[in-house]
Amino acid sequence: MAAFSSEAEVYEFLGGVFRMGLDDPELVSKLEPTGIVLRITYTEPDAVITVDMPGKELHEGAGAGPDPNVELFMTADTGNRFWLGKVILPVALAKGQVRAKGPVAKLLKVLPLAKQLFGPYRELVASKGRSDLLEA
Fold first, then answer.
1. pLDDT tens figures, 74-97
2. Which of 1, 80, 93, 94 has the most CB within a 10 Å radius?
3. pTM of the model
4. Using CA atoms, how far apart are residues 96 and 104, in angstroms rounded to an integer?
5. What is the 3-state secondary structure (H, E, C) of the chain?
6. Are 117 and 20 in contact (CB under 8 A)?
């Protein structure tokens, strides 16, 4: 059974972690110059999040936001497990758990910055009483 029951929950939690990142001026100062516009298409349930790093904006929904230059495709469960620190993106790509399109090497260079959000993501999930997500 999928960890998230609705598209709205995906936006609340997986979109929420990106919102936290975009609210961190130090993190934004490192991500903005990369020029990465990342679109993540989730399944189970279906949801689309576009993170415009140069524009410092988050867009929710298919077709929302600027055209991406890097795209990732995964289940929402895989996205949750990534933010818990349980999925190593390069390994998930190699195993086909995550599919990618575009200059993924560019994204992998900034991937270590994501680790700063693992703790805040856990806190967000815990604050909403979703221990089931923490145990994924």
1. 999 999 999 999 999 999 999 999
2. 80
3. 0.94
4. 14
5. CCCCCCHHHHHHHHHHHHHHHHCCHHHHHHHHHHCCEEEEEEECCCEEEEEECCCCEEEECCCCCCCCCEEEEEEHHHHHHHHCCCCCHHHHHHHCCCEEECCHHHHHHHHHHHHHHHHHHHHHHHHCCCHHHHCC
6. yes
